[in-house]
Amino acid sequence: MKLYYATGTCSLSPLIVAHEAAIPLELVRVDIRTSPHVTETGNDYSEVSPNGYVPALVLDQGTVLTEGVTIVQYLADLKPDSGLAPQHGTLERAVLQSWLNFIATELHKMFSPWLFHPEYGTQAQEVARARIGERLAHVERHLQAGGPFLLGKTFTVADAYLFTVVGWSDFTGVDLSGFPHLRDLLGRIRTRAAVLAALRAEGSKTTG
Ligand SMILES: N[C@@H](CCC(=O)N[C@@H](CS)C(=O)NCC(=O)O)C(=O)O
């Protein structure tokens, strides 16, 4: 399987999951700053994934899976014993999906595009930061009541996605100082061997 990724973006989440589950992936870097986006081999990325965003997972039989929340669940289900996602059809799986959707729609899509494009203006950015702060306060209360991970005692694909998205806080000016349980969770995740391996694989710094 091939994972199309860009360093420092949401494609880190499936990369972490692949490392956690010990699933080997061929990595193909995409330059998402160019128009059109191009792969490291010089191909127009829209020929792989028509919407042009990462991540995309191309299966060996040719299917192209897009949408991070789908890809992480697909990978986790290839290795059910990894514990990265509860079994399909259970309440726990629905809870996992609820968190994945929350992260995708309430966090990821508030950070991106609003805080990644200064040209959208300071008003849009202030609104986005305030909304993210409200949503992170919800995560903080949840972790305080039932952490340390989003689903309780074990690390799941939702934690990988949360780590990826909230990891953008520093350089987008989102203040995490009021969220000690969330910061504790991010710190725990950052030291996991699979997470460090995924960060190295995508070409990110693993310290500092
Ligand atoms: N709905 C997609 C959105 C993915 C997305 O926003 N990817 C960003 C990086 S985090 C990207 O590739 N942006 C470049 C672009 O949209 O052209 C998903 O959840 O997987």
Distance between the termini: 31 Å
- The CATH class designation of the largest domain is Mainly Alpha
Count helical runs: 8
Total number of domains: 2
Largest sheet: 5 strands, mixed
Structural class, by secondary structure, is alpha+beta
Radius of gyration, taken over Cα atoms and rounded to an integer in Å:
17 Å
Query: Which geometry do the CA atoms define?
Result: globular
Order of helices and strands: EHEEEEHHHHHHH
CATH topology of the largest domain: Glutathione S-transferase Yfyf (Class Pi), Chain A, domain 2
The overall pLDDT, averaged over residues, is 96
| Second rung of CATH, namely the architecture of the largest domain | Up-down Bundle
Number of E strands? 5
Q: Which ions, cofactors or small ligands are bound in this entry?
A: glutathione
In the sheet with the most strands, the strands line up as 3-2-1-4-5
> Which strand-content bin applies to the residues?
5-15%
